[in-house]
Amino acid sequence: MTDALILFAHGARDPGWSRPFQRIREQVLAAAPGIRVELAFLEHTRPSLEEAVAVLSSHGIMRATLVPLFLGQGGHLKQDLPALVARVRERFPSVVLRTTPAIGESQQLTAMIAAWALEQHRLPG
Amino acid sequence: MTDALILFAHGARDPGWSRPFQRIREQVLAAAPGIRVELAFLEHTRPSLEEAVAVLSSHGIMRATLVPLFLGQGGHLKQDLPALVARVRERFPSVVLRTTPAIGESQQLTAMIAAWALEQHRLPG
Question: Complex ipTM, two decimals?
Answer without folding.
Answer: 0.97
